[in-house]
Write a structure and sequence with these properties.
The chain is flat. It is an alpha/beta fold and 717 residues long. It contains 26 helices and 25 strands.
């Protein structure tokens, strides 16, 4: 019995009951309740479900203990020990009718009490097992439908059922206690050692079993094939032997075996023909839809998948990114080393790109040294930026050309559906324009398509001036997305994201202005403005009595690499009077690892200020674990691209589980980004990811709407 034994005391004398309770507790028993009246016993049993009841026969008023026990016996299988100061013959005979497990005369010592309780519990356990065993026998013999006999340890048959009479041709009286079980079998077919193990039981105390197909000898020495199962009956010295007649099956087996031999020959020939035909069709189909050099989808298959993807995204209101990659200086490699070497490089590039994408994304060779990646189901522009950075990181590792490590870079142009175009041709055209812009900007980078790329130089200057004016007129504004505690479901923090509200124009999202902010260098003052704005807003909420929350701010590479970045953070905190621990600086994994010496110094300075630090889009880069353990980092944010696949891709689910385990072993808090469904939430909560954010909980909201959201979901103290 697992856990403490629970004993219910029924005693109307309070002093006696309390003394008995303390004695039993001292012995290690659990006393869930003490009842002084027979009227309360039933409720106490239902509520506490005791393993044993100590029942005083004389209960003062109402029914005595024997009548109470009679009512209990009709509903429950609980052992009862009667307690009494004296006992006359009439009372004793009445008590026997309720089947008590023991009878104690008061007063009694603690040793006698403990022994009586343990004996009663053991007796109840044995009776329960015997009852279950008897029911088991009855079920086996009456319902099994197979011939059965129960065999004693010495091999004598103790009992047989009607099916056995039919099989053997003997009546029960001719078999039971008159024959041994081995009289009915050709014993050479059994291993004597195995039979002995079944009859004796294993040395480990577990019931052994033996399955055999054997010859059964009936009356007049007639033989039949039977499938025999011998099994030890737990808690007894007996075995049960069951037999199923398979004589007709054995006879049919030979006929079937002959037919099968012929069928196998025919099937083998047919299978070979079918496999050859399928392989031929598969090969022709693959050749028609794939590039012969890299094995990637060709233009025709790319266009087909693009049309399907656009239809899907249109129904689900997500973003789709089309990326065109062109290798930098590939012509030089072809001209100097030859086309054979160039082809080897193209195949290596194709392999790396395939490793980078998810199962439902597409990588295609567009022609020459151009590749196309179609990235589906992207909730936000930040996800696309992180994916593009992930692709560029593939080229940080050298390629081996003629066994020599060689640096190869790529320029990437990105177009987004439906922001830049809603057609296949439009997306390809705008992505191609953005790719050439990346070439003009110095290569080895990515560019989003913007309308400014089609503008003349003076028109581009107008766009930059609009952004400068937007900073001056404070047309930029922060939106806030909540972070949710996976255990309580409450809001514990928020991430600030930038939006642009031009005068007299619709709200603009980052994809429409971030590329120009980066190109013009305005990302630095814009980032500083955002940092000051969100610190000020957070402090204002706190002064108005709102629950304090930590606000996370994304930081660009240009900002972080500024010499006075730490000083700017300190100034923002000082001017807004926001306590440092309510600010979190988010840095992409790539930014930190690009210059580990500078990163270590600046992160140390931020830690001294008291600011929290988190690694954004963790799991997509190449962080060294040794650096990760030494850097002053508080949180690891699991990248959205991994979270999106945990419920449909076992490999990605394994990666996320490993990241959570790694983070916990390093003492870091885990935050999952981009949680879009209940299944993702439940998976992450089950694996103890502390915090989450994503559209499943809320999209980024303007300050007033976010404040309302917080009021709906109070933050824990």
């Amino acid at each position: 019995m697992s856990g403490k034994v629970k004993i219910l005391i029924v005693e109307d004398e309070a002093i006696v009951a309390e003394d008995l309770k303390q004695t039993l507790i001292g012995m290690g028993y659990d006393i869930p309740a003490v009842v002084g009246s027979g009227e309360l016993v039933l409720d106490a049993v239902l509520e506490n479900q005791p393993n044993l009841i100590l029942m005083d026969i004389s209960l003062g008023r109402g029914d005595d203990g024997i009548k109470v026990a009679e009512r209990l016996r009709a509903r429950f299988d609980i052992p009862v020990i009667y307690l009494s100061v004296h006992t006359d013959d009439v009372t004793f005979q009445r008590s026997l009718l309720t089947g008590p497990f023991a009878f104690l005369l008061k007063p009694f010592d603690s040793l006698r009490l403990r022994q009586t309780i343990e004996v009663a519990l053991a007796k109840h356990t044995i009776e329960k097992r015997l009852k279950e065993s008897g029911e088991h026998y009855h079920t086996i013999f009456d319902v099994s439908g197979s011939a059965m006999m129960i065999v004693d340890e010495d091999g004598t048959i103790a009992m047989v059922n009607e099916e056995f009479e039919h099989l053997s041709g003997y009546a029960k009286g001719e078999v039971e206690r008159r024959k041994e079980w081995s009289d009915f079998f050709v014993m050479e077919q059994f291993a004597a050692k195995e039979i002995q193990q079944c009859l004796k039981g294993t040395t480990a105390g577990e019931a052994a079993s033996l399955d055999k197909i054997s010859l059964f000898i009936g009356s007049n020495q007639s033989t039949r094939y039977v499938c025999t199962k011998i099994k030890k009956i737990p808690g007894t010295e007996r075995c049960i032997v069951s037999m199923i007649d398979i004589t007709e099956i054995k006879r049919a087996e030979e006929e079937i075996r002959t037919l099968n031999a012929e069928l196998i020959k025919v099937n083998t020939l047919l299978k070979q023909e079918v496999v050859e035909r399928r392989n031929s069709e598969k090969k022709l189909k693959h050749q028609a839809n794939h590039d012969p050099l890299t094995g990637l989808p060709n233009r025709e298959l790319l266009f087909d998948r693009l049309k399907q993807a656009l239809a899907f995204e249109d129904r689900h209101n997500n973003l789709l990114a089309l990326m065109i990659l062109d290798l930098d200086n590939f012509k030089t490699i072809n001209d100097t080393l030859g086309h054979v070497v160039g082809d080897v490089l193209l195949k290596d590039v194709a392999k790396r790109l395939q490793q980078c994408v998810r199962q439902y994304d597409t990588v295609a060779r567009f022609g020459g040294d151009e590749f196309v990646i179609v990235v589906n189901e992207m909730p936000d522009i930040h996800d696309i930026v992180k994916f593009a950075e992930k692709v560029l990181e593939l080229f940080h590792r050298p390629f081996y050309i003629l066994d020599q490590p060689t640096a190869v870079t790529t320029s990437i142009g990105i177009s987004i559906y439906p922001l830049q175009s809603t057609t296949v041709d439009g997306l390809l055209k705008t992505a191609d324009t953005a790719m050439y812009q990346a070439k003009r900007e110095g290569k080895n980078s990515f560019q989003f398509f913007t309308e400014s790329m089609n503008l003349k130089s003076d028109e581009r200057a107008v766009m930059k001036n609009r952004l400068r004016s937007a900073l001056e007129r404070e047309e930029f504004l922060p939106h806030y997305q909540p972070r949710i505690d996976s255990t309580t479901g409450r809001i514990t923090g928020m991430e600030a994201l930038m939006r642009w509200q031009p005068r007299g124009a619709p709200l603009a999202f980052p994809a429409e202005f971030f590329p120009m902010l980066e190109e013009s260098g305005l990302i630095i003052p814009a980032g500083e403005w955002l940092l000051d704005k969100v610190c000020r807003q957070n402090k204002e909420w706190q002064e108005r009595g709102k629950e304090p929350l930590r606000v996370a701010v994304n930081t660009s590479a240009r900002q972080f690499h500024q010499d006075d970045f730490t000083e700017k953070v300190s100034q923002a905190l000082a001017s807004t009077r926001l306590a440092p621990h309510y600010l979190e600086i988010e840095l992409p994994e790539k930014v930190i690892m690009d210059n580990i010496t500078e990163s270590s110094r600046k992160l140390g300075e931020l830690r001294e200020i008291g600011v929290k630090i988190s690694i954004d889009n963790f799991g997509t880069g190449y962080s060294s674990l040794s650096y990760l353990n030494r850097l002053p980092i508080d949180e690891l944010q699991i990248d959205k691209s991994l979270v999106n696949s945990i419920t449909c891709d076992q490999g990605e689910a394994t990666v996320v589980t490993a990241i959570i385990s790694l983070g916990h072993s390093l003492g870091k808090k885990l935050v999952a980004e981009g949680v879009e469904s209940k299944d993702q939430f439940l998976f992450l909560a089950q694996h103890q990811c502390e915090e989450m954010q994503g559209h499943y909980f809320s999209r980024p909201l303007p300050p007033d709407d976010f404040e309302k959201l917080v009021r709906m979901f109070p933050v824990p103290p």
